[in-house]
Amino acid sequence: MSTPVLQLRDLRVTYPGGMQAVKGVDLTLPPGQTLGLAGESGCGKSTLAMSVLRLLPKDAEVSGEILLDGEDTRTMSWGRLRAVRWAGASIVFQGAMHALNPVRRIGQQIAEPLRIHASVPPGRITARVAELLAAVELPIDKTEAYPHELSGGQKQRVMIAMALACEPRLVIADEPTTALDVIVQDQVLKLMSKLVTEQGIGLVMISHDLSVLGSVCERLAVMYQGEIVELGTADTVVGDPQHPHTQALAAAFPTIGDVASRYAPATTNPAGLPQKTVPELGEPVLRTEDLKVDFRRRGGGWTHAVKDVNLEVRQREIVALVGQSGSGKTTLARTILGLQASTSGRILFDSKPIPRSSKGLKDYRRQVQLVLQDPTSALNPRHSVYESVAEGLRIHRLPGDEREQVAAALEAAELRPVERYMPVLPHQLSGGQRQRVVIAGALALQPRLLVADEPVASLDASVRGEILALLLRLRAQLGLAALVITHDLGLAWNIADRVAVMYQGELVEVGEVEQVLLEPRHAYTKSLLAALPGLARLA
Amino acid sequence: MTSPVWARRRAAAGNVWREFRSNRGGLIGLAILLLFILGAVFAPLLVPEAALDVTKATGGRLQAPSGDFVLGTDESGRSLLALVLWGSRGSLVVGLSATLLSVVIGTTVGILAAHFGRWVSAVLMRLTDFFLILPSLVLAIALGVVLNGGLGTIVLAIGLVSWPTGARLVRAQTLSVEARPYIERSRALGGGHTHVIFKHVLPSVLPLVFVNMTLAVGTAIVAESTLTFLGLGNPNDVTWGTVLHAGQAAGAVTFGAWWYILPPGAAIALVVLSFTMVGRALETVLNPKLKERR
Asked: Is the CB of B181 less than 8 angstroms away from the CB of A369?
């Protein structure tokens, strides 16, 4: 058997302050194979990736063996380590938008490692860059482009091209598709697996999404609190998870078409889920009629962000608005809340057009509330949980005891015991708890409609199910209607009654979840579904 | 519910103090400042006001420092120690109130421009630019002459001239705060302009304003001395600047009366230096980014 590309023996990483990020990990990766590393944020998977090339901060203590092609990186001299970095093993960093230098052209950036390592003669660099761009299926004229001129998926391809530049034996991809749309994610994943088989490199792919890893990797390791809790072939780990944590991860991303996960996001909350019966729907709460929103483009011309949208949300109904980024979903949500002026068309709330005066809008916003994507930035870091939840009450000067109302809202958002959470500042809470605070702040005003913009996109897999279950329970208990904006079709399958698919500002398909997701009519909906990683849809 | 909020603020203030204490330059500056402030507050107890009266002066003309007059005397036989001590009251009051005026104008303009944007921002920022490019000393002199009067005029002149930099700074900070999603959440909750400005923007801008203010006091004191040295304002008001002006007029330089020029000059330098040291120390405490670089 050939030397493994990467071998970790009893790897331990301790950060100052005694935080053990990685606790004794053993892993082997033969050439030409893909190993998936799954886990939630904070489980130590990125630390593990960085430790391979000794990219951790100086004060991190690393022990054990990190064998790269049989050579221990821990004992390498500085010069040898520099030679090995990128030429022997390279990393596709998380978040391609931030890992590229915004003021240099793509071609120069890809050429940088080639120049430093002198792996090709200077005269051949341009040709090699062209080769690399072709390998990641980018047009050659992109060498002259700056990063901001590329889309997210194209930037990710550039990152991959850079990683491959010096023909490394090992590539570590840290969440390579997290910020990408399903369709682009599918393309990037296919590209990576193709390169692995063609060039015989070893690929370590890190992600929190088991379905992504399952579709690309041969073997899968699941990491939990710094340890590998499960290791096996991808099919067994995803299909028949043994460790409870793996089971939770696998359950978090539902299979579309699987009746068991319909109206049943993964939750371990003792409150359980409301009955699966479809609640009887009432009158329409919100309706948009031929709604249009245009933006003036820099340098002339108009961008039609929302084009003739007719959408209806009825009482006690959860509608999922699905689409790629840039499809106009968020603009539509902001317009519905009156945060963005419409160009033409009407928005009716309770069959009355929403007011335009500032006082009228204030009253309207008691009825309709917003839950934002990233709870970390949606809460003022200087305000305690109590203040954040009471903010709406104070703005509207609602009668009654403020403390009681805040307590009731926190109770409804299941932050118990409420007294413990009231004086706490946002940074002392976990992501899921913060999102509950945002929801509590919205609930305090007793709205009738909740507009949630990607409410779980920035949360960990296990928390995702809990928040979704909370939305379902709120609908059952308070009769709350919700418009949930998402790029995640699994979310729609989990909780929504109806789905509206948005593409380039237009609603291309609206209907019952089962009908749209299982028998899509529009070509775009079909391509969205086809791009889902294999394991996430029933064959 | 006010009590936990206040408890948290007290704790936060305690933290600031603990970190400030570890900055030696800041502590020294603070000590010198306290000394000057105590001197200014208790000046009437240390030296009776009568010592400033020319008719009751006991010393000779331009006497060198001696046992009777620790810092010598001026051309009318008044003790320079008394003049410098009483002068600190005028200088500090003018410096602080001019800064306060400038900070209030600057912060208001900055926040309003950033918050409302569009034409409000255009108008306010062009106004700021206008004041920014005017040679400030000339403008202050012109204002001082036109408005004519005592220390109040000087305060007004300095305040009106020095606010634009603060306004620019506050505008930038406000823009960055207003881009955060929690402002959007606050709007969606129904919050109006006043709510967003007073609950979210102002509290996060204030630390910056505070640091900027400490640094600006020094500049204001120097500006005050310059203006009064040039003979603006009422010569009967005693400030370090007027003492210097009187010394210049009495020919202290040609006479070689260093004790006339040095004490007020040194007092200005010391106070400005200590305000700067305190300001820099506060800046490192309140701005975590600067801390990392140290």
From this structure: no
